[in-house]
Amino acid sequence: MKSREEIMNMLEAFDLTGSFRDAGELAGCSHHTVAAYVAERDEGRLGGVGPVRRKRIIDPWLPKIEEWVERSCGKIRADRCHAKLKALGFEGSDRTVRRAVAEAKKSFRAGRRRVYRPWIPEPGMWAQWDWGAGPVIAGRRTNLFCAWLAWSRFRVPVATWDRTLPTVIACVDRAMRAFGGAATYWLTDNERTVTIDHVAGIAVRHPEIVAVGGHYGVTVATCVPADPESKGGSEATVRVAKADLVPTDANLRGDYASWAELVEACEAFTAEVNERVHRVTRRAPVEMLTEERHRLHALPERPYTAALGETRKVSWSSTVSFGGVTYSVPHTLADETVWVRVDGDQVVVTHCAPSGPIEVARHQSSTPGHPMIDDAHYPPRPAGPLARRPKPTSAAETEFLAIGDGARTWLVEAAAAGTTRMKVKMAQAVTLARLHGQVRVDWALGHSAMFGRFADGDLASILAADPPGQPRRADDAHSLQPGTAAWGRLGGDR
Predict the structure, then answer these.
(1) Are 285 and 154 in contact (CB under 8 A)?
(2) Predicted local confidence at residue 293, as pLDDT
(3) Quick one: 33 exposed, middle or buried, by C-beta within 10 A (0-12, 13-18, 19+)?
(4) Has residue 475 got a pLDDT over 80?
(5) Less Cβ crowding at N or C end of the chain, within 10 Å?
(6) Quick one: DSSP state of residue 293?
């Protein structure tokens, strides 16, 4: 086969000379070739004639290959076809078989492949949710509930401990309140919390989910089983959320130290991903959500709480009583109403905040007389009797404590040692600070507290020593060894 450029050179030479032989000499080819292409041009076949298919060694075996491809629904491998053909007497190479199998599969798929119609979502019509595996916190795996508005591409990830029906309902409520309204349809997968059975290919909806849809005025629909194409948007949301929130070697994110840290990371991810310009719409989802909210349905003031358990009033000690057992909740919920339910061997406490239901506590089930108290639900303990800090109550005490940390340490240690006339000694320290400076007196008070020297005159004795920061050193003119003058007094009375 000649290239397009070679063919045009031959035709141009023929139009110039009018001779097949001369055109062949100018184009560097046979005059028979020139004559053939000129004839094709005159008949209008120049652009439509392709290479002629030659007879191949595999041709007698093509019906058998097509039969195998048909029986396997296009799944048989070329190496299996080659092995079976060799058993039947085929002597060709595996490369020839691979090409023949590829052509047979292409013909088989023609007319059988799925046809995709572009989906153009309407504002306020569709929302989707899906689940993803979250990070591990304290040896326990978490889950990521990922919701997605189809038109504006607004995404909301919510971290959860489980995927039970009450958790699903709470997450759906939180997502809709983040959206600012309810879409007409919610699309999700066929989990047992949503679809309890399939009859003749029709999904049987969970009665509680039907009640949830009636409460919010939405219709919960499910995709075709094993058909990810029908909810690709929510699956993409899960993939993006996991890539940023779950620690991997790719994002170099460290492990989460606590549940609160994961919740903060989800909130930061929500703000970041929705303020970023989307690749398809070329607009930020948070900007498009402002327009879509006008098409969303209004949400009821109170969330659907029938599946959240029983209501309890949080006491002044930040605890609730459930089944005769006391369970702690965060101290910020004192005097609030919460919902308590049992999830397996655990007790779950949920609070319905303005942003939606939020799980605030989770304890192992206990028995009466064995309360379950989590220290993380309370602020740091106040300082005990051994860790109290001095607080001045008079001008004299204020002036003494203003000397420095050494003065505060001296006060604590002297009081613990039962030192008498402390106020007099404190006044003496203030007077010495005026004479020698606060730095030296603070140093002396710290050493006095360190060595337990609280008697009269101890502070002045310590001040008479070398000042801090000037250590004594031995040299040619001075020795650190004690003198021998005291030995002269021995035996003097004899």
Answers:
(1) yes
(2) 93
(3) middle
(4) no
(5) C
(6) G
pLDDT score of 214 = 92
Distance between CA atoms of residues 177 and 354, nearest Å: 8
Q: In the predicted model, what is the mean pLDDT of the chain?
A: 85
Q: Give the torsion sign (CA, 483, 486, 491, 494).
A: positive
**Torsion-angle region of 153 (φ positive above 0: left; ψ -120 to 50: alpha; else: beta):** left
Say if residue 437's pLDDT is above 90.
no
The 10 Å CB-count burial string (b at 16+, else e) for 370-402 is: eebeeeebeeeeeeeeeeeeeeeeeeebebbbe
Per-residue model confidence (pLDDT) at position 247: 82
Per-residue DSSP letter, 239 = H
φ, ψ (nearest 5 deg) of residue 23 = -65, -35
Written as six digits, the tokens of 111 are 């007319």
- Cβ contacts of 488-493, under 8 Å, gap ≥ 24: none
Residue 494 is predicted with a pLDDT of 46
**Where does residue 286 rank: exposed (0-12), middle (13-18), buried (19+ CB within 10 A)?**
middle
Q: In this predicted structure, which of 38-47, 292-301, 427-436 has the lowest mean pLDDT?
A: 38-47
pLDDT tens, 58-86?
999 999 999 999 999 889 999 999 999 99
| Cα 270 to Cα 97: distance, rounded to the nearest angstrom | 53
Domain spanning 126-295: CATH superfamily: Ribonuclease H-like superfamily/Ribonuclease H (3.30.420.10)
Average pLDDT over residues 171-186: 93
Nearest to 289 by CA among 387, 165, 183: 183
- Coil vs helix vs strand at 3: coil
Burial of 127 (0-12, 13-18, 19+ CB in 10 A): buried
Which tokens sit at 234?
A: 């929510």
